[in-house]
Amino acid sequence: MDLPFIDFADPEYLSDPVRVLQRARQQSWLARTSVFELQVLSHRIAAEMMRNRMLDGPGAEIYHGQGFTPLMSKYAREGMLPLIPEPPHDRIRNVLRRGFNPRMILGQRKMMQDLAIELVDSFSASGRCDLVSDFSHHYPITVVCRLMGIPPQDIDLFNRRTTDLSLLGRFPIDPWVSRIDAALSGLYDYFRELVRQRQEEPGEDFVSAIIEAQTVEETLTEDEMFGALVNLLFAGQDTTRFQFSWLIYQLLTHPRQWERLIADPGLAQNAIEESMRHTPSQRIVLRRAVRDVEFGDVVFRTGTLIGINTLATNMDPEVFDSPEIFDIGRSNASKQQIFGGGAHACLGQVLARVEMTEALQVFAERFPKMDIAGEVHFTPSPVLLGPEQLPLRLGTSA
């Protein structure tokens, strides 16, 4: 096929990716790219793909040739749930789902609100902060650690290790292999001991819940248990850390939208959906064809790796009117595809939404006059992208 080509390292793409993707979509709903060769640009076809069981998790093979250590390969095969194909995927997911359920998460709203207030109180008197280093870097990892029953004194250790683990989102990852491997080794050792403790003395936490959730038919091996816990820690940190920073960045660079939110706090949840639609932190959802399968008059042969480009599909004008406009009142913003869909839909999406809602409401109430106070820096990854530095001048209602 004569498909458009998108180079993620091209200066034009780096400066205006939406325009490049829109131009490519005018030629075809499918593009060749410099990362994960084939990528889908159509929201409708992406939705069909995510529901179709002829497409499955891509497997750890996506990292072949990148210097993976044995431990990294083990984690990719048995811990990274978005990559794991059938049959183990559903078995692992079902156990995690019974322990990590929406009812448990919604019951922790007050804890999340109190944590957001505690972090904000630590810098509010100065009148300034860097949203990422002072808040976003700490908030989601602390929430996940508390849900897992991690002692407070160990949270900084988890923060450092998950930050190194986030380098898995860089391509190529060869320069970061030693840091990733060291982070994984430390996390596996920690969870090995934590699981042993919870088996002997269960608590009211997520680790205890998934130990209890296992059945004769659906049980996790030791390595799957450790890998799943590492993956939930990793996924619960980076995607939310970047997405909340995107949310604040977009609201403050669209001041009328920020004013709408201040005037109507009930828009908070929809503002989060619109942020995930307009500037998704997770920009590629991967699938692999397990059999020959056809979409949009294109036959994908068995084994074909397919990337769903969420920045492109979330900007599809067939679904979203004036998609380039950031509008927190958009009626169908929840159709955004950052969490994937079908059997591989993100298990932590309820947690991410609740966390960001509680944090946004705290910032809107405490700092209605805040604005950006310096240069913003972004991650250099085409897969997981967001602000790494976002200086703010805080403003109160006084």
UniProtKB/TrEMBL annotation:
It comes from the Bacteria. Pfam families: p450. SUPFAM superfamilies: Cytochrome P450. The keyword Iron applies. InterPro entries: Cyt_P450, Cyt_P450_B, Cyt_P450_CS, Cyt_P450_sf. PANTHER family: CYTOCHROME P450 YJIB-RELATED, P450, PUTATIVE (EUROFUNG)-RELATED. This is Cytochrome P450. The lineage of its organism: Bacteria, Bacillati, Actinomycetota, Actinomycetes, Mycobacteriales.
